[in-house]
């Protein structure tokens, strides 16, 4: 089989070296004679691995000691409920910044649990943009401010970290975690479903500052309660053991690549290559202003949309898969997470140029 480059938005491709290691260890992990997924999460060999994965993530993101790192179930959407349940006391308001469909979905879910103030920051004009964070209209005594730094569907990424004047900042980093360096201390809470930039689906990472834990609403289910998770090292119930293991293998791989700083340089080069190809052609377009263009999810449209089907069919034939845009926005989308090698983006750009020549 010739090489396939999978541009799926999630679950997304994983590094080849990670998959090969997992395959080698699949039925006999660390000489136990069992697969890691067949072992008790309370066995010392499993718990050592789990702890090491947490330490590697702490190192990769320089997570300060006053933050818990929780390995949870329930995906990004699970956190849409867990965040207000844990962080929004009755009578208080939380601000939700809307920059696309994921931040909107988070706000809609949160409304079940308390007072939510939504702040739409999208600006549509000839080019799509968002309001700079200094102009966001925030509630002064809000319980927290929630935003989505990278909107996976529409490809808007907010790189500046908003100043919230002491109000805890909560970020849905599902599709941008570990893609570039961030200062964790600027956040009250960061969460991310694993299936974009960490590992397989089924695992969700929550990084939460100590003082925000333990104020949950009375009806919070225990598996969504950060305090319960923190007190039990994320093993109050059976964690997604295999996904946790595979995330750990990804963290080791990322360290071998030189860490987040090194992968950020490659991510920048990949995004530059693809946006340049789009901008230089009159055949393809992406109308988001430079400053807010996602480096992880690159949506683009063919000017002649009747060619969409042909484009996707020929791309697939060339080994470039899952390029169909999200149904909400149409067109194409190339998700180029950490695991996508630059060769994949080069192959895509080459294909796009050839397709353009054949269809001018
Ligand atoms: C994929 C995604 C989600 C939803 O994740 P699930 O694990 O499917 O619940 C939420 N937020 C963002 C930004 C995403 O990219």
Question: What does this protein look like?
Answer:
Pyridoxal 5'-phosphate binds at residues 76-77, 102, 152, 172, 195, 237-238. Catalyzes the reversible conversion of 3-phosphohydroxypyruvate to phosphoserine and of 3-hydroxy-2-oxo-4-phosphonooxybutanoate to phosphohydroxythreonine. One of its GO terms (molecular function) is pyridoxal phosphate binding. With 360 residues, the chain is an alpha/beta fold. The chain has 2 domains: 21-256, Aspartate Aminotransferase, domain 2 (3-Layer(aba) Sandwich), CATH 3.40.640; 258-359, Aspartate Aminotransferase, domain 1. 34% of the residues lie in helices and 17% in strands. The protein has 9 helices and 16 strands. The chain has helices at residues 16-24, 44-61, 75-87, 101-110, 226-231, 241-256, 259-280, 308-317, 342-359; strands spanning 5-6, 67-72, 93-98, 115-120, 122-123, 129-130, 145-147, 150-151, 156-157, 169-172, 189-193, 204-209, 284-285, 297-302, 320-321, 332-335. The strands form 5 sheets. A 7-stranded mixed sheet has the order 2-12-11-10-7-3-4. A hairpin with a 4-residue loop joins strand 8 and strand 9 (156-157). The longest helix has 22 residues, at 259-280. The chain is globular and about 60 Å long. The relative contact order is 0.17. The protein binds pyridoxal-5'-phosphate. Pyridoxal-5'-phosphate is lined by residues 10, 75-77, 102, 148, 152, 172, 174-175, 193, 196.
